[in-house]
Predict the structure.
Amino acid sequence: MKHRAPQEEAVFVGEITRFQTQLRAYIISLMPGASGAEDVLQETNIVLWEKRVKFEQGTNFRAWACAIARLEVKAHRRRMYRLGMTILDDDLADQLAEPMQSDEERPEEHLQALELCLSKLSEPERELIEHRYYTNATLEEFATRSGRSSETLRNRLYRIRAALRKCVKGKLAINETRL
C-alpha cells in the first residue's frame, strides 16, 4: 500500500476530525430512528483511513467522506435487513442523502428542518411514519390494525415523504435568505 508523507497524513487526520460532527449528522439523517449510527461512523472512519491514499488533496473531502458514509449506511442496512429488522427504504434514504452531500448545505440545519417538518405532521401521519421507520412491525400488520389496506398506506407514505421533502427544502431556502 502506498503511503503519504507525514504532513499529508496530518492534513488528512485534520480533515476527518473537522468533519466528524457533520459526518455523524449525515449518517443519522440516513438512519432516522435506527440504532447503529455510531458503529456506521466508526466503519466509515476506518474505510476513510484505509482509502486515504486515494483521496486527492484539494478536492472536496466532505463530499468524498459522505459518499463513503452512504455506502457504509447501505451495508449496515443490508446487515439489519438480513437480521429481519425494519429499515428506511432505499428511495427515501437516497432522497435524504442528496442535499446533505452538497457543500452548500449544513447537516445541522437539514436535521433541524426535518425535525420541524416532522412536528407539523398530523397525528395519523406521524403515527404512520413512526410505525414505518421506528418499529420492527410490518406495514401489513399496521394496515390490519388500522383497518386500511397496505397499498393505501404505501401511497400515503409516498405523499408524506414528498411533503416532508418539500417542507425541508422550503425551510432550508428560508434559512438561506436569512444568511
